[in-house]
Specification:
The complex is a heterodimer of chains A (about 250) and B (about 325). Chain A is about 40% helix and about 25% strand. With about 250 residues, chain A is α/β, with parallel strands linked by helices. In chain A, β1 (about 5-15) and β2 form a beta hairpin. Chain B is an all-alpha fold.
Chain lengths: ~250, ~325
């Protein structure tokens, strides 16, 4: 069976004045896949995220989500279609409790409060925040804020979730938990696009890895091939990871 | 949990309802009516500023439009102020939608300045508008007292009842919004516009809804105020004084909470009405001096208002309890 595309990015270019942040980037995320987007700092990953989710309007190119052209559409419209993102710099609704944060997300598909509460309760369990549900989101630790960020996005019942460095700043155990969560979400039918720096975490769970460098796509393949791709190693992964992957 | 949140509100509402009958002093009854009007205006303002985080310094505009619409209809066409109130609500809501839509492109302080400008522009417009008697204002024609004409000359109780009903309606609306989707969405917009958009909230539309509801309520109180004072002019209605009073009392009481405006108005309105009664014309501004001092104290020690101080205390206690439970 041919894989069905969930998200198609076609020749997207994004410029800020003379600075080209994304240059002619194209790739496809298929339904039910976990695709990772990696690249050194300043490669244009977050910019691409912002273009896809409507926070920026791309300079040229097309973005198609689940068969609908979403190029230049507003962020809330994109979210309503079922494409939800998290932010690299977490944006908790600080003066609201953890539960209220998630409830706000759940209201998108459940306008009635009682239903939304039920969904929120489930999500709290999934992201392990049940016992912290009455704490103000602003006073959570960074790890919990990242969980909350994922939880709030999940509460919108997305078809596809885009995580922007959701694992940065977490310790080993927490990273393991986050990896398991990603796999669990995929098993439930949610397509994932993940921006991440922690190679050990994403290489094992990704179906495919897209590599950006200086705004251009330099590789798009299964993890094993990407880690052995000479250009990627030179441009990004560095000798250390190269040596490590040869050893193992 | 739901019960414990509703009951103090019902107690407050019952206490307010019996007050004018316990103390049948006319000054006191007058103060209560003004209190209800401003507490209600505070509730309306709280929707757009306390919940949605869009600071408005121009609510006098909506209040004034409500007052002027019903007064013009009554003065020129002898239409009942009740009909005038509904028309005023409609006009005010439309004006709110029309002027605030472009203003929502502005963020933070710039939005606040724009709303201040809207109130000032409205004032200038009414000052130089001959059809509405311009700067001289309108004396509302005195007619026989009746519910239909919203005029009562022998007792203040009917005015109190009307003010009370409007106040309860605004509390119910604020309470409904706070407990349901719209309240959560407005708060999300206040906390982070981007986060709100990312979870599917059309932030502009929700801010617009909040502004329209807020303007509608303000206009209703405007009609009542006009019928109570029986005289209106642009300087009185569209003054920064009224806009600021609404802001100050809500900030003092506590933003983003339905109790905030009630507490704030319960402090500010007696202060301003009684200083006016005691000092007459020479006492003008004394209430604001005292109130200014209160605001300074609140801003220094508890920027979230009197309610914020209570909440903080409760949280500290709960925090201590949690620490004990964990130990």
């Amino acid at each position: 069976m041919m894989p069905k595309p969930m998200l198609e990015i076609k020749n997207v270019t994004m410029k800020f004045g003379n600075l080209v942040a994304n240059q002619d980037v194209s790739f496809t995320v298929n339904k039910g896949e976990i695709v990772s987007l990696i690249g050194p700092n300043g490669a244009g990953k977050t910019t691409l995220f912002n273009c896809i989710t409507g926070f920026y309007k791309p300079y040229s190119g097309k973005i198609i989500f689940d068969g609908e052209d979403i190029t230049g559409k507003t962020p809330y419209y994109v979210a309503k279609l079922g494409l939800t993102r998290t932010f690299q710099i977490v944006k908790p609704l600080k003066d609201m409790t953890v539960k209220e944060n998630i409830l706000t997300g759940a209201f998108l598909r459940n306008p009635v409060r009682a239903q939304a509460e039920k969904v929120a309760q489930e999500i709290l369990e999934i992201v392990h925040l049940t016992d912290k549900s009455d704490i103000l989101a602003g006073s959570l630790t960074i790890a919990d804020k990242k969980r909350l960020e994922i939880g709030r996005a999940l509460a919108t019942d997305p078809k596809m979730l885009m995580l922007d460095e959701a694992m940065a700043g977490l310790n080993q155990t927490e990273i393991k938990e986050a990896m398991d969560l990603c796999l669990k979400l995929r098993d439930e039918g949610i397509t994932l696009l993940i921006v991440e720096h922690i190679m050990e975490a994403i290489m094992p769970i990704s179906d495919r890895v897209v590599v950006l460098n200086a705004g251009k796509k330099i590789a798009d393949d299964v993890p094993e091939k990407v880690t052995n791709n000479e250009e990627v190693i030179k441009a990004y992964l560095g000798e250390r990871y190269h040596a490590k992957s040869k050893k193992s | 949990m739901k019960k414990s949140k509703i009951s103090p509100l019902i107690i407050i509402l019952l206490v307010i309802l019996v007050l004018p009958f316990i103390k049948a002093d006319i000054n006191f009854q007058h103060m209560l009516i003004i209190f209800l009007i401003f507490a209600g205006l505070g509730e309306a303002w709280n929707l757009i500023t306390g919940f949605a985080g869009q600071t408005s310094f121009g609510h006098a505009a909506f209040f004034g439009i409500g007052a002027y619409t019903s007064t013009i209809l009554f003065y020129k066409f002898s239409i009942s102020p009740w009909v005038g109130m509904l028309v005023g609500i409609a006009v005010s809501t439309l004006v709110a939608a029309f002027v605030s839509y472009p203003c929502f492109k502005l963020k933070g302080h710039y939005f606040a300045i724009a709303t201040m400008a809207i109130a000032e522009i409205t004032k200038q417009l009414f000052i130089s508008w001959d059809y509405v008697e311009g700067a001289t204002g309108i004396m509302i024609p005195i007619v026989d007292e009746s519910l239909a004409s919203m005029q009562f000359h022998t007792s203040k109780i009917p005015y109190f009842i009307i003010a009370y009903c409007l106040f309860v309606i605004s509390i119910l609306i604020a309470n409904y919004i706070e407990k349901n989707r719209m309240g959560f969405y407005l708060k999300a917009i206040r906390e982070s516009n981007e986060a709100a958009e990312s979870i599917g909230i059309n932030t502009t539309v929700y801010k617009l809804y909040a502004m329209m509801v807020s303007a509608a309520l303000s206009a209703a109180f405007g009609t009542l105020y006009a019928q109570y004072i029986l005289y209106i002019d642009p300087f009185m209605l569209f003054s920064l004084d009224i806009s600021m009073k609404i802001v100050l009392l809500t900030v003092l009481g506590g933003l983003g909470n339905i109790y905030g405006p009630i507490i704030g108005a319960a402090i500010l309105i007696p202060l301003s009405e009684y200083t006016r009664i005691f000092f007459g014309g020479t006492g003008k501004g004394i209430d604001l001096i005292i109130f200014g001092a209160l605001i300074v104290v609140v801003a220094c020690f508890e920027p979230r208002g009197i309610l914020g101080a209570f909440k903080k205390k409760r949280k500290v206690e709960r925090g201590a309890y949690d620490a004990k439970a964990n130990a």
